[in-house]
Fold these 4 entries.
Entry 1:
Amino acid sequence: MVNPLRTPAHPAYLRVVRASAWYDLVVTAGFATPWTYAPVHDALSSGSRALGFGALPEPDAWQVLFANLMGSVVVVWAVLRIVRTLPEHGLFDGAARTLFATWQAYALAHGASRLLWLFLGVEVAFGVLQLLPWRWGRNAGSVPDGASPADGRPLDTASR
């Protein structure tokens, strides 16, 4: 029996892609505007203090701008993955999560609040869940020759 998460085209894999999109939408929607970012920042700072990690730095115009840019892009990307879930979206999201996790680890190494560990854990988990099936699928040779992104098959087999 084939593990359903070992093939990117399997409905179980698509549910993981969709779940990661819902997580992103819920967690980042508050970052998308200056008006919603202020209470999100306050809540994160209070939570960080309550956990003994210390308060977050006070936001300035640049921090708010970059939070809004990140929030806006992630919200749009999340909605795309919810409305039109494709296996390739999991591949690209896994790559993006690898980048996010790298920069979060960098920030932690340079004194960011330990609260960031909670987000880093989720990034790594969803990244692994979305990237490993592409690796396994390639190794298993489970996709026919001539597969292409348009027919929902892994990209790495399209050129065989």
Note: The CA atoms of residues 32 and 68 lie 4 Å apart.
Entry 2:
Amino acid sequence: MTSGNDQRYAQHQPFSGHQAEKNKVIFYSLSSKFVDEKSAQKRSSQKVQEVVYYSLAIGHHLGVIDCLKSRLECPLTGYQQWVSCLPEQGEAYRKLAGVQRFGEINIDSSHTHLLALALRDARPQMNEEQQGWSNQLIALLGQIESDPAMYLMVRRYDA
């Protein structure tokens, strides 16, 4: 039986026989699309491609299943300390702190610039491990900039 809180979140299937570790925050990225992008791009105008991207973005409302792949994992306490390096009144802090409040957040193209700049500017307050997480997240944000259909889903796993 699942608790009411468990039912609020999508259930992510770990790879064969692997359960997500407790007390972690995991960043997932969209890893599969149900569109043949190469052939679609060759024969489609920019406007048609935008419609395809929009359709993928709202696809979960229509029953399309996104395939997500784990890209970055942090221990929960480490994540909280990492986020606390950001200015507390800033939008980047508010966005990333949402993992603690809601258990799950999405990061899309509307967040990339804001988060990348905040992580870059906070580097002096971070330890080496946190700087490594920042580098990984900034690289993922760059991928979102290159592919507007990509997004990150960040989920907290509690004990």
Note: Strands lie at 24-32, 67-75, 104-107, 152-157.
Entry 3:
Amino acid sequence: MTSEQLLAEIREANLTYLMLAQTLIRQDKAEAVFRLGMNEDSADLLASLSSAQVLKLASRNTLLCSFRMDDSLVWSLLTNHNTPRKVGNEATNALHANILMASRVSEVL
């Protein structure tokens, strides 16, 4: 993949993320804040952007979204790979990972 192709992929990911975020925020702001892991002020700002502003913002060379799972425990639980304590099933691991991520969202708010 060339550098230009990589930048095009980043811009496309940015546009997709911003459009998804706006849709989620406009449908249910409280749920969007939780799912996107952002504060209400950021959600309000994103929801108020015009199409031209979204396109301009998406055209940046930096990825605008980020992984919320910066913790190896959460990754292990979500992938069932090297979990510290083998739990009975995938559903329990996913639930545990969701609880951990949800607790981190409250820190943002």
Note: The CA atoms of residues 80 and 88 lie 11 Å apart.
Entry 4:
Amino acid sequence: MSSAYKSSKTPLLLVGLLSATALLSACQTSPFAKDPVPEPRYVPSIVLGDAQTLTIMPNRVACASALPMQCLLAKSKDGSVFQIPYDWIEDFQPTLGTEYVISARPQIDEGKQNLTGYWTLQNIVSQRMVSNPQ
């Protein structure tokens, strides 16, 4: 019985060794495979758009965004009202309760040709205190 046991054990052992060798060689990279190359980091080129006159409302509102933050309400010359996050107008520090008329230029990502949402203040045209901001 021992010789019959040895003869049936040898093919099983040989099959096991061949399987292990095949599995280990599959885990190794080919010497001809190229290492993955990361995409280059995108660095935007920011340019300023044409100056626009905006009326900044005297109150702040919660931004319609995923992050909790305060927004300024801005009204453009055509009467449309939109939100600008509180610190997204460079060089502009508004005071609560004061309505401003400003000249500002939108920042544009030149490579993607779209607005970034940030603005650069040109000048404050006028400002007035509002007695009861809402």
Note: The CA atoms of residues 10 and 16 lie 10 Å apart.
